[in-house]
Amino acid sequence: LTALDKIEGVDVAGYFPGTEFYYMMHTKKPPTDDIHFRKAMAWAMDYKIVVEKLFPGSIQSRGPVPQTLPGADPRVFQYYRNLDKAILELKQSKYYAELDKYLVTVHWCAEVPDEEKVALLFMSNMADIGINVKVVKVPWMSMIEEMATMETSPNIVTIFDSAHYPEAGSLLESRYKSESAATWEQNEWLLDTELDTMINDSVKTIDRGERFAKYVEIQRYITDLCPTLFLFDQVEKHAYHATYVDWPAARGEVIPVMGYNF
């Protein structure tokens, strides 16, 4: 992109398409079935390194919905690296006394090599609080296959996901409803009937303000459960011939739906 940007008439545009990078934590498999264990990992992760060094230009995610999506909550709780808080949470976990007996397995997508950098950083960060991590490179089709059952799903699966229509409700449905368990969009295995009811109620609410208020409540409910590491909202950068191409996304007029900016 740097070389392309030097060509006369060519510009590089960066925009946020409504894509978030998640670490989906299996909430029904030891040791990630323990909420304090999950929160300890959330506090131990170095998000700053991820967005400044590994995926520069991206921003740390705030909850389960990218901030460019209508209905995203700009004030939902956001974790940051704090080892003291991580240790406090870990001490409340039922696994704290025998951490050496448990291995957290992270499967990253072989077709997206940059994911390995995040996985290795995660492994290093978790070692700082005594959590052992195994990083595994897995082809995409194998990831889909293993997430088809609760037993074969690993502790953590990495995923980029985007909205299917431009509202927070799209990702809340496709990522966290019980119907999405056993698919590539949910390794968390939440199976939370209360959450299902909240999501169903929100997406059928006609009034926009009321619907968005319900989205906010759902985002905070999910964040409180800490089923996922919300790592970053992805920035996309593309070179284009600015002298004759009028590209709305380059002006900031982004359609936050998967694949719609081309």
UniProtKB/TrEMBL annotation:
<dbReference type="InterPro" id="IPR000914">
    <property type="entry name" value="SBP_5_dom"/>
</dbReference>
<dbReference type="GO" id="GO:0015833">
    <property type="term" value="P:peptide transport"/>
</dbReference>
<dbReference type="InterPro" id="IPR039424">
    <property type="entry name" value="SBP_5"/>
</dbReference>
<feature type="domain" description="Solute-binding protein family 5">
    <location>
        <begin position="8"/>
        <end position="141"/>
    </location>
</feature>
<dbReference type="GO" id="GO:1904680">
    <property type="term" value="F:peptide transmembrane transporter activity"/>
</dbReference>
<dbReference type="Pfam" id="PF00496">
    <property type="entry name" value="SBP_bac_5"/>
</dbReference>
<protein>
    <recommendedName>
        <fullName>Solute-binding protein family 5 domain-containing protein</fullName>
    </recommendedName>
</protein>
